[in-house]
Design brief:
alpha+beta, 8 strands, disordered N terminus, binds 2-acetamido-2-deoxy-beta-D-glucopyranose, MHC_I-like_Ag-recog_sf, endosome
């Protein structure tokens, strides 16, 4: 009985705590995969998620970032979206050019595989944390930290020349900082407004799983008490028989 009560006291806050959409943190993350087969063949594709829901995709064949959900542009105006599209198109072109130049500079061998993971985690109370990590041939080599690019702890020393070049470009550093510190949390806060009902539905599914477990436990407790009561009645009867 003590165990069942303990389980219930653990489960109840889980069930009710879950129904509060805005009381928890939200992770928005973009993944970019760039493959360079040789100096003349490459492709870059992107995906973005809010938590476990995919929100955006960007195919190499497309000039436009597509919203997977109708509410994925958050509260940004179409003018702001066009401005962001323009920035990201410029980014994709210069990214390709830079990788090809670095490949020449460091005599890197093709094929080259790069994976980028960037985004922000927004906590209740408007606090957010940002991240931007880059992996080369599957190994984490570089990140954006504060206002500048930094090598990963295990990165090869020859990466230092790349980081030096990257950090000379103050314009790009300021843009990355702006995208991660301002645009990313604004997008997340906007999506929490425009996509609220779907996000709540997602949370709702956790709640209903919790409620089913709760219902099953309640049944078990009732059954347990019923059996106890039966045993008690039987014992009483047998005492009465003896007396
Ligand atoms: C580059 O790679 C692509 C895709 O693998 C291939 O079709 C093409 O022939 C290659 N080009 C050169 C110049 O090697
Ligand atoms: C990827 O897109 C770029 C720019 O539009 C294009 O030049 C390139 O050929 C594309 N790569 C592939 C593999 O389709
Ligand atoms: C949260 O921060 C954003 C800027 O990122 C701001 O526009 C918004 O008003 C803030 N919201 C609250 C509730 O403070």
């Amino acid at each position: 009985m003590g165990r069942v009560l303990f389980l219930l006291s653990w489960l109840l806050p889980q069930v009710w705590g879950n129904s509060e959409v805005l009381g928890r943190s939200f992770l928005f993350r973009c993944l970019q995969i760039s493959s360079f087969a040789n100096s003349s063949w490459w492709r870059t594709d992107g995906l973005a998620w809010l938590g476990e829901l995919q929100t955006h995709r960007w195919s190499n064949a497309s000039d436009k970032i597509d919203s997977v959900k109708p509410w994925a542009q958050g509260t940004f105006s179409s003018q702001q979206c066009d401005q962001l599209q323009y920035i990201f198109r410029g980014y994709r072109n210069s990214f390709t050019r830079d990788v090809q130049e670095f490949a020449k500079m460091l005599s890197l061998e093709y094929p080259i595989e790069l994976q980028l993971s960037a985004g922000c985690e927004v906590y209740p109370g408007n606090v957010s944390e940002k991240f931007f990590h880059i992996a080369y041939q599957g190994d984490y080599i570089l990140s954006f930290h504060g206002t500048a690019w930094e090598p990963a702890p295990q990165a090869p020393p020859r990466l230092d020349s790349v980081i030096k070049v990257l950090n000379q470009d103050q314009g790009t550093r300021e843009t990355v900082q702006w995208l991660l510190s301002d645009i990313c949390p604004q997008l997340v806060n906007g999506i929490l407004e425009t996509g609220k009902s779907e996000l709540e539905k997602q949370d709702g599914s956790h709640t209903s799983v919790g409620l089913i477990i709760l219902a099953v436990l309640t049944c078990l407790v009732s059954l347990f008490m019923f059996i106890l009561a039966l045993i008690w009645i039987r014992k009483r009867r047998s005492y009465e028989d003896i007396l």
